[in-house]
UniProtKB/TrEMBL annotation:
Organism of derivation: Streptomyces pactum
Alphabetized Pfam families for the sequence: SnoaL_2
Residue ranges of every copy of the SnoaL-like domain listed in the record: 21-120
Name of this protein: SnoaL-like domain-containing protein
InterPro entries: NTF2-like_dom_sf, SnoaL-like
Organism domain of life: Bacteria
């Protein structure tokens, strides 16, 4: 196992619900390292990285990442995984919180880790956010979207 793979596997261990060490996770990053949650257009830096882990674990306290494949390509580590857990905490949204449902999630995800000198410079997480939302019962409101589009079209 390469040093880069060891760093990435340690990051996953520290992010587990039964361990959850946000400060230890953050310490694996370079000073200016970033954690990019791409489906949600969020970039976390500095202390936000640890807060992001704590926020997700607050919603899914038993969070687990099932690593399916790990590929090391020099300073890049590509991981296929599933994010699993139980929806036991309030899920924040721009319009309010989704109350806990007790539903289990099993979300397909691909992560790309870019390392520099044994530390994480960039972590890009591509999780299937639509799958997660459907699994906790938050399906899209297509009716409202269609009505809003019709209203906008009549004003134009």
């Amino acid at each position: 196992m390469t040093r880069n793979e060891e760093v990435v596997r340690e990051a996953y261990r520290l992010a587990e619900g039964n361990v959850l060490d946000g400060h230890g996770f953050r310490a694996l990053f370079t000073e200016d390292g970033t954690f990019n949650d791409l489906p949600n257009a969020m970039t976390l830096r500095g202390d936000e990285i640890a807060q992001g882990l704590a926020g997700l674990a607050g919603v899914f306290p038993d969070i687990h990442r099932e690593l399916l494949a790990v590929h090391v390509l020099g300073d890049v580590v590509a991981v296929e995984l599933r994010i699993q857990g139980t929806h036991l905490g309030a899920f924040p949204t721009p319009v309010g919180e989704i109350r806990p449902t007790g539903n289990r999630i099993d979300v397909p995800t691909a992560d790309l880790w870019y390392l520099r000198e044994g530390r994480v410079e960039t972590f890009n997480c591509y999780n299937a956010a639509n799958v997660l939302l459907a699994q906790i019962g938050a399906t899209p409101d297509f009716t409202s979207a269609i009505e809003a589009a019709k209203t906008a079209a009549t004003r134009a």
